[in-house]
Write a structure and sequence with these properties.
The protein is an alpha/beta fold. The chain has 2 domains: 157 residues, NAD(P)-binding Rossmann-like Domain (Rossmann fold, 3-Layer(aba) Sandwich), CATH 3.40.50.720; 105 residues, Dihydrodipicolinate Reductase, domain 2 (2-Layer Sandwich), CATH 3.30.360.10. 29% of the residues lie in helices and 25% in strands. The protein contains 7 helices and 11 strands. The strands form 2 sheets. Strands 2-1-3-4-5-11 form a 6-stranded parallel β-sheet, with helices on both faces. A 5-stranded mixed β-sheet has the order 7-8-6-9-10. Helix 4 packs parallel to helix 5. The protein is globular, with a radius of gyration of 18 Å. The two termini are 34 Å apart.
């Protein structure tokens, strides 16, 4: 059975990447490519909507798709915990319908975030530095926000991190008690550093995205999950088993297929 896909944000970098991947896959057909001047009605009739727009547009895309009974794969930043909770309440009344939200499609990124949740239980001084291209309109990034939220969840009874002088603007924006510092620079694709400070030692977990090609395998996994998803699924870590158990974190929603051999290999690291 062929899944008919409507792609919102088709003219952007991620949109062009999705277009190439969807057109190369068996079982998918790209039936609509929406730009900034497109009408939302162009989404109608699709089996799956892919949203790679901007934060100010993303929720309208999702609301329209959900109201028309269409599953959605969201690759747009800006989905806060409150917005996700509201969406979860809405989908709880719509059995059989699903929205998959992926802050970062890179397998390496989700592994780095998962390793950070392990370290979070041993350090009280934690900060995040994230960098993206100068054209990224939102900050902090969705990846950094999710990393901060998962770190705080993993800390459990340890409570908020130690973040002195946070009243000063130069100290970054606090998300789940963790300061996040955002860089927007020419020549950068994406980088995230989670820095842990302890007694006479510092641990840094860094992930660098060299090119958008690193998103390829995660996109394929997310597309497969989104077309049959029920409820709200957040994060690529919900789709693959990294072999890392974080206190309070849900287990993966689905077992990954072998995507060119590399996705399955990543789960054994």
């Amino acid at each position: 059975m062929t899944t008919r896909v409507a792609l919102a944000g088709a003219s952007g970098k991620m949109g062009r990447l999705f277009t190439g991947i969807i057109e190369s896959l068996d079982g998918y057909e790209l039936v609509a490519s929406l730009g900034s001047k497109s009408d939302l009605s162009e989404l109608d009739g699709a089996d799956l909507v892919v949203d790679v727009t901007v934060p100010g547009v993303s929720q309208h895309i999702v609301d329209h798709a959900v109201s028309h009974g269409i599953n959605v794969l969201v690759g747009t930043s800006g989905w806060s915990a409150d917005r996700i909770a509201s969406l979860e309440r809405r989908l709880a009344e719509l059995p059989g319908q699903g929205v998959v939200i992926i802050p970062n499609f890179s397998l390496g990124s989700v592994l780095a975030t998962s390793l950070s949740t392990v370290a979070a239980r041993f350090f009280d001084s934690i900060e995040i530095i994230e960098a993206h291209r100068d054209t990224k309109v939102d900050s902090p990034s969705g990846t950094a926000v999710r990393t901060a939220e998962l770190i705080t969840r993993a800390r459990g009874d340890r409570g908020p991190v130690s973040a002195p002088h946070i009243d000063q603007r130069a100290r970054g924006q606090q998300v789940a008690s963790i300061p996040i510092h955002s860089l927007r620079l020419q020549g950068v694709v994406a980088r995230q550093q989670v820095v842990f400070g302890g007694t006479d030692e510092v641990v840094t977990i860094t992930h660098d995205t060299i090119s958008p090609a690193s998103y390829d395998h995660g996109i394929r996994l997310a597309l497969d999950a989104a077309r049959t998803a029920e409820g709200v699924i957040v994060g690529l870590d919900r789709l693959i088993d990294l072999g890392i158990t974080t206190p309070g974190a849900p287990r993966p929603a689905a077992k990954p297929e072998d995507v060119s051999g590399q996705a399955a290999a990543a789960t054994t690291l």
